[in-house]
Amino acid sequence: MPETSRRGLLFGTAAVSAGAFLTACTSNEPSKKEPAADSRPAADDKPGKHVTIGFAGPQADHGWLNAINEQARSRAETYSDVTLDATEGSNDTAAQIGQVETLINKKVDVLVILPADGKALTQVGLKAMRAGIPVINLDRVFADPQAYRCWVGGDNYGMGLNAGKYIGEKLKDKPNAKVVELSGPDSLELTQQRTKGFDDALKNYPNIRKVARQAADFTVESGQAKMAQLLQAQSSFDALWNHDDDQGVGALRAVQQAGREGFLMVGGAGAKSAMDAIKADNSVLKATVLYPPTMAASAIDLARALGQSKGISGMSELEIPASVTLFSAVVDKQNVDQYLPTGFN
């Protein structure tokens, strides 16, 4: 899968979603807390200065990417003092650069950009910043930190790490346990980070050995084909770490067609279909590690706060952070009801 056609690089452990920390930061409701003793601008006050946010998101050719666009639009609609000027979304680098330049020429107040290719769009990010339009860089990071005011995104290493920890704890008492991995495309840095996190976690469990790995393409079809190969090559194993819930749909089909069982599967991203399967508890899929698309809603929260010169409720600083890395929570049968509302189609 080309890097320009799929998602790029997925806060507190109890957060239901990425927006949990930031939802209050720009709420239209008055703060229930006593006013601060200083003159720091409140981040959770009533509607304030109107802010036009330009949003350049991805083409919705994947469940997670579609959820990114929906999260941005729906969050903007909750604010009476926000206008969202959204592009059609593109995974073509040149087309997206043109879209961002159009938003710059419109003189929007803040830009939220999930670049098709972070390196390729760095120059247009720099152009916006130099024009006095602050940029919220969403997920796929620009090559130059001067190209954005704040980065918001997921933790791919942490995603693999938490998947490995979950599997490790489930298999820690099983001698000579074997695991397999169904990754994303090896050409993507995010895939490499997820695999490294997983491998590092397994180092803490000397009884567990990874015996096979296949790289899929974040699609149902590739998930099914590559999982079939894993099943054919490995007559038995105890756990599967699958990087993506979309390709996981195909992986489950392959498992069912082969009539295989006796192992646990951990998915990735947090699709509703995966959470429904986890809740039903009628397949090998027992957990998924989140890479929350709610990061787009949080980016809108931050853009509004930035446009209104506010900080974040619950933090003492006058300004929004320079970066926000989301936590990759593990969702299993014990907590799936809590996370189901965040699942994406």
TrEMBL record:
Chief localization: other
Gene3D superfamilies given in the database record: 3.40.50.2300
Domain Periplasmic binding protein: residue ranges: 53-308
Keyword set includes DNA repair: no
Domain of life per record: Bacteria
Keywords tagged on the record: Signal
Location(s), subcellular: Cell envelope
Compositionally biased region (Basic and acidic residues): 30-48
Annotated stretches, region: Disordered: 27-50
Database matches in SUPFAM superfamilies: Periplasmic binding protein-like I
Family indicated by similarity: Belongs to the bacterial solute-binding protein 2 family.
The name this protein goes by in its record: Substrate-binding domain-containing protein
